[in-house]
Amino acid sequence: MRKFTVLLSMTALLLSMAVTGFAADTIKLGVAGPHSGDLAPYGIPAMKAAQLVVKKVNAAGGVLGRQVELLIQDDQCKPEIATNTATKLVTEGVDVVLGHICSGATKAALGIYKDAKIPVMSPSATNPALTQSGNYPNFFRTIASDDMQAKMVVDFAINKLGVKRVAVLHDKGDYGKGFAEFVKKFLEKSGKVKVVLFEGITPGAMDYSSIIQKVRREKADALIFGGYHPEASKLVSQMKRKRMKALFISDDGVKDDSFLKVAGAAANGAYVTGPRDLSSIPLNATAVAEFKAEYGAAPGAFFQEAYSATMALLNAIQQAGSTDYDAVTKALRNNYVETPVGNIKFDSKGDAEGVGFSVYKVENGSFVEMK
Amino acid sequence: MDYFLELFLSGLTRGSIYALIALGYTMVYGIIQLINFAHGEIYMIGAFVALIVAGVCTIYGFTGVSVLIIAGIVAVIYASAYGYTLEKIAYRPLRNAPRLSPLISAIGMSIFLQNYVLLAQTPDFLPFPHLIPEFEFMEPIADIVGSAELVIWVTTLVTMILLTLLIKKTKIGKAMRATQQDMSMARLVGINVDRIISLTFVIGSALAAIGGVLVASYIGQVNFYIGFLAGVKAFTAAVLGGIGSIPGAVLGGLVLGWTESFAAGYISSDYEDVFAFGLLVLILILRPAGILGKARKQKV
Question: How much is the pTM?
Answer without folding.
Answer: 0.78
